[in-house]
Design brief:
The protein is built from 19 helices and three strands. By secondary structure, it is mainly α. The protein has a three-stranded antiparallel β-sheet with strand order 1-3-2.
Length: about 425
């Protein structure tokens, strides 16, 4: 496992250094904002993100002594450390064996590319995945991990109701999340005040149609073929590339509606999990968590390339929690378990292919969808293929989640997974 981690991460770093250094642009942006906040105060840093993000991104700044090159190195090292801790947790959870979840996670780095270590989106994804692996053995940590993830990127709050569904761990999950959330909220209000506390919500409300969002595809197709009156431009407000023109207002309203429908569907999944009570398994909860996050990504007006990093750790955790992944002997003796494990492995592999296609689009082929040139139609087709691929994966997880969350009165409360250690990230 260690050799595989070193080799796969070395490939990712080589891609960053030799081919894709442009993805370091956000790290430069973090550095500039943190440096400015040393004069104006930390409450003014990165208002588009929850305030705990400023504290997180200040860590490499303190160690860099204000040098941008040192900050880049420090940020990359910080993200590699997060990755290494999750890899270890996954490996121990799998009985210190190189199972399919471990192998697929090692393969994720070169497939997703250097964006994995030049954005902090991996952190909330890993926290949600760690929460799933902790759920049976350390439910208080499970709840705390969700609260920490929400303090960084907001979206992990969507999976908390499902995480809190099992009756035997519900109270400890809720207490862990509430205590952690109370600390983060109190500190954020004390440092930044109310306006800074709600600034990420205002920022999301003011954003336009990001060019990679599935809802933007009709406008992107029109722009690729006709250009005027549609325009693709870099928005200084959202710090992303957006598309505008006839139909944009309608699609923005439609995105609001589809996101609302996604939230209602997530609530239905969570209610189903709560009704199952003691019969709900960690595997089913992981399937619900992936489906919930996937639906929000697909229905939103924004789909940045790094959002794949939210999904991959959760998908890996879902695979790790299947009985077939945990007990090879039991899977061999049960054709149904073996089939379920195999189909889920295929779904996770498909997700990694979607991640590879996302990696190819950004940064390698991003001019095809962001700059006016003859390859624009092909670039927009690639976006469509990527989005349809992701939609198929989310649909598969959703179907499995709905079946797995059915109430089974005679099912064991614990299940096979309870026999194995879900070790902490740090002993």
């Amino acid at each position: 496992m260690l050799i595989g981690w070193i080799v796969s991460r070395a490939i990712m770093i080589a891609l960053l250094w030799y081919c894709e250094f442009v993805v370091m642009n956000d790290v430069n942006y973090y550095f500039t904002n943190i440096k400015t906040s040393t004069v104006l105060g930390v409450g003014y840093a990165l208002p588009e993100y929850p305030l705990p993000v400023a504290a997180l991104l200040a860590l490499p700044y303190v160690l860099s002594f204000g040098n941008i090159v040192a900050y880049r190195v420090g940020f990359v090292v910080m993200m590699l450390l997060v990755d290494a801790l999750f890899t270890r947790q996954l490996y121990v959870h799998q009985g210190r064996r190189n199972t399919a979840p471990v192998t697929l996670w090692l393969a994720a780095a070169p497939l997703l590319g250097p964006l994995m270590i030049t954005r902090f989106d991996l952190i909330p994804g890993v926290l949600v995945a760690a929460s799933l692996l902790w759920l049976q053995s350390k439910p208080h940590r499970s709840g705390a991990a969700i609260a920490l993830g929400t303090g960084i990127k907001l979206w992990p709050i969507l999976v908390l109701p499902a995480i809190a569904a099992p009756l035997h761990s519900r109270l400890r999950v809720i207490i862990g999340s509430l205590v952690t959330a109370a600390v983060l909220i109190t500190a954020s209000l004390a440092i930044g005040g109310w306006d800074r506390f709600i600034s990420p919500l205002r920022y999301q409300t003011d954003r336009g149609l990001q060019i990679e969002a599935p809802i933007s595809w009709p406008l992107m197709a029109a722009w690729a073929i006709h250009k005027v009156p549609w325009i693709v431009f870099f928005s200084e407000t959202s710090h992303s590339v957006e598309v505008s023109g006839p139909g944009a207002s309608f699609l923005l309203a439609l995105a609001t509606l589809t996101t609302l429908l996604a939230l209602i569907t997530i609530a239905a999944f969570s209610l189903r999990a709560w009704r199952a009570q003691s019969s709900i398994t960690p595997s089913a909860i992981a399937l619900i968590a992936f489906t919930s996050v996937g639906m929000i990504i697909l229905t939103n007006k924004v789909f940045s390339p790094q959002y794949i990093q939210w999904l991959v750790p959760i998908a890996i955790a879902a695979l790790a929690l299947t009985p077939g992944a945990i007990s090879l002997r039991e899977a061999d003796n049960d054709p149904a378990l073996e089939h379920d494990d195999l189909t889920l492995r295929r779904a996770v592999t498909s997700l990694l292919i979607v991640g590879l296609l996302t990696h190819m689009i950004y940064p390698r082929l991003y001019d095809w969808v962001s700059q006016s040139q003859p390859t624009n139609p092909l670039g927009v087709v690639l976006l469509l293929i990527r989005d349809l691929g992701l939609a198929c994966v989310v649909y598969y997880f959703g179907r499995r989640a709905w079946q797995a969350s059915a109430k089974r009165p005679n099912q064991s409360d614990t299940g096979q997974v309870e026999q194995h250690d879900t070790s902490p990230l740090i002993d």
